[in-house]
Specification:
Layout (H helix, E strand, L loop, with lengths): L1 H27 L5 H7 L4 H13 L4 H11 L5 H10 L4 H8 L1 H25 L24 H4 L6 H20 L9 H5 L8 H19 L2 H37 L2 H7 L1 H12 L8 H8 L5 H10 L6 H6 L1 H25 L1
Helix pairs in contact: 1-6, 1-11, 1-12, 3-4, 3-5, 3-7, 4-5, 5-7, 5-18, 6-7, 6-15, 9-11, 9-12, 12-15, 14-16, 14-18, 16-18
Length: about 350
């Protein structure tokens, strides 16, 4: 059990670091001027679907937030909204790219293709717009206004200089541990838990290079970017959830392997796992879906199960939609469930 705890701790630090590095890179090239861009796309259904699918497939929820905002203000149609919601995998995309980058790229590519097809088909049938609360009151929302920082302003908040130092120190320590092999799995990992968390050694060097890029960006970034985007958004908002869910899922799966032959059970009940993945995918939040990412990374569940969950779930991206158009949310989710059942069953049949 001690060996399992050590492996879970090492893997949690490794995966969390990779995810945070990717989030910082994505944050630095975030979506800008979306209002003007989508304003030009208002009467071009194909371009709407294509751009929305591209924004949806980007790791994280910012692209999804932009699409939902444009949809609720009548700059995008239902097909574009559906394309985004099919394509997006929320924050779980970061985790997938960290744990199995090759297969994650394949999954995101499949999601993008399905999203474009679904969006174009939806445009042919959704002739009349679905009512939303914000129909004719479009206003471009700055990125900073999409996050509520009030929760961090009341207590102790480090100065921007201290925030920069903490971030730099953390990334440098992580980079050293990564390149010196301190976070690699021990030889006993597979024999004690039966669960191989990470296997692509080459990505340690890849993310070492990415870490260097983030360090350079941190040194030369503005105080606003460091404080609002990196510290408040990633460290304060996302980091605790990533650590809790990643560590919890890894520990839970590791313990299960000591008592249950999950490979045999899932092999006999794969379709039930697909149904469970779809059911969990209905939750409009990042976190619960990480269990399927973790199980797939360990070779426990087949690709169709992860695909089914990814098709139905959309991270936090659809949360604003619940406030502005519950009907659109329900309709999109129902369509996604139908797509997930059909596509995952086909993959399961021919795999």
């Amino acid at each position: 059990m001690l060996d399992l705890l050590i492996e879970v701790l090492k893997t949690t630090v490794l995966v969390t670091g990779l995810v945070v590095i990717m989030m910082m890179l994505i944050e630095s090239v975030n979506v800008e001027n979306s209002g003007r861009i989508f304003g030009r796309l208002k009467n071009n259904g194909f371009a709407q679907v294509l751009i929305s699918a591209l924004l949806g497939v980007l790791p994280g929820c910012m692209g999804g937030f932009a699409v939902v905002s444009m949809y609720t203000h009548r700059l995008l149609g239902f097909g574009a909204l559906l394309a985004m919601m099919v394509a997006t995998a929320g924050d779980e995309a970061f985790l997938m790219l960290a744990m199995f980058p090759d297969k994650a790229a394949l999954l995101l590519g499949v999601l993008f293709v399905i999203a474009v097809i679904a969006g174009l088909v939806a445009n042919r049938f959704a002739k009349s717009p679905i009512p939303t609360r914000l129909e004719d009151s479009f206003e471009i929302h700055e990125e900073d206004s999409s996050h509520d920082h009030s929760g961090h302003s009341e207590g102790f908040r480090p100065s921007v200089r201290l925030q920069r130092i903490i971030l730099l120190t953390g990334i440098v320590l992580y980079l050293v541990a990564l390149l010196l092999g301190f976070l690699e799995e021990g030889d006993h990992a597979e024999s004690t838990s039966g669960f191989n968390f990470l296997s692509e050694e080459w990505m340690y060097w890849l993310f070492g290079i990415l870490s260097l890029i983030v360090i350079i960006a941190l040194i030369f970034s503005s105080d606003h970017f460091v404080s609002e985007h990196l510290w408040e958004h990633i460290v304060c908002r996302h980091l605790p959830n990533i650590v809790a869910w990643t560590g919890g899922m890894l520990l839970g799966v590791g313990i299960l392997f000591h008592f249950i032959d999950l490979n045999a059970w899932i092999g006999e009940n794969t379709f039930l796992m697909i149904l469970l993945a779809i059911l969990v995918g209905l939750v409009p939040q990042s976190g619960p879906h990480m269990v399927f990412v973790t199980l797939f990374a360990g070779g426990v569940i087949p690709f169709p199960v992860l695909l089914a969950n990814s098709l139905v779930q959309d991270g936090h991206a659809s949360l604003p939609l619940l406030a502005d158009s519950k009907r659109s949310f329900v309709m999109a989710k129902l369509v996604k469930v139908a797509i997930a059942l059909a596509v995952s069953s086909l993959f399961l049949l021919f795999s």
